[in-house]
Design goal:
Length: 246
């Protein structure tokens, strides 16, 4: 009886292994078929069979597309559960967009501390971003928070110069607030002052930060665009809860 049970267990693992191998082979086949539909130079990162409707997820960077097992059709848009409203595509993109907060080069960011500073976020902002200036007003209403601001120069030719002038100021945070909140420009920086501008730009490109402001929370989730106070507080609390759960 014992030998029979052991034999069944071995057989079960063997069958599971065969199913996994067959699925992997199927995914490889779909990848090969679908690759020909994209222009040369476009790299497909992964092709994964999904648990819904026999679709295969095609991931290119943080972009998600779908196709069928014969790669005859390519679907764009979001997959939403009609029964409970779960947005599977958004959940997947959110997961792909996560970063390790502990690995952010915080020494390359401005650091603002209010109150006990226990709550922490990072934000990518461009000095020429109007929405960033509005969002800065929102940030200034919060208490007990630490905000790391990466000056991410993507909007205008002079964004880099403005960021350099602010970084090289005697009081960087004051210079940033003077510009973002009051429109008062920082004095011109000395030519020999070094800035993290290039490092921050490379970081943003690597993380696929395509707009400002973009907020990064301590659980690795992010929020592109300007948030109101209520939503920002909610996301900060959710990130803290996720950190405790993990």
């Amino acid at each position: 009886m014992k030998k029979t049970l052991q034999g069944l267990i071995v057989l079960a693992f063997a069958l599971a292994g065969s199913a996994f191998a067959a699925e992997s082979a199927q995914e490889a086949t779909v990848r090969k078929l679908i690759q020909s539909t994209f222009r040369e130079g476009v790299k497909i990162d992964t092709v994964t069979k999904t648990p819904y409707s026999g679709l295969f997820e095609v991931r290119i960077g943080s972009d998600i597309l779908y196709t069928d097992e014969k790669a005859q059709f390519l679907f764009t848009g979001e997959v939403i559960d009609a029964k409970n409203g779960t947005n599977y595509t958004k959940a997947r993109i959110d997961d792909l967009s996560k970063v390790k907060f502990s690995e952010l080069p915080l020494e390359s960011a401005l650091k603002m501390v209010k109150g006990d500073g226990k709550r922490v976020i990072a934000v990518f902002e461009d000095p020429n971003c109007g929405y960033c200036k509005q969002f800065r007003k929102t940030l200034n209403t919060l208490d007990n928070i630490t905000v790391y601001t990466f000056m991410y120069n993507i909007l205008s030719d002079d964004s880099k110069d403005k960021s350099k002038n602010i970084w090289c100021s005697a009081d960087r945070n004051k210079a940033w607030d003077d510009w973002m909140l009051r429109g008062k420009a920082a004095p011109e920086a000395p030519a020999n002052c070094n800035t993290p501008n290039d490092k921050v730009f490379a970081l943003g490109q690597k993380m696929r930060v395509t707009g400002t402001p973009s907020v990064i929370f301590t659980d690795g989730s992010r929020a592109p665009g300007m948030l109101d106070v209520k939503m920002l507080e909610s996301r900060i609390a959710a990130a803290a809860s996720n950190n405790k759960a993990n």
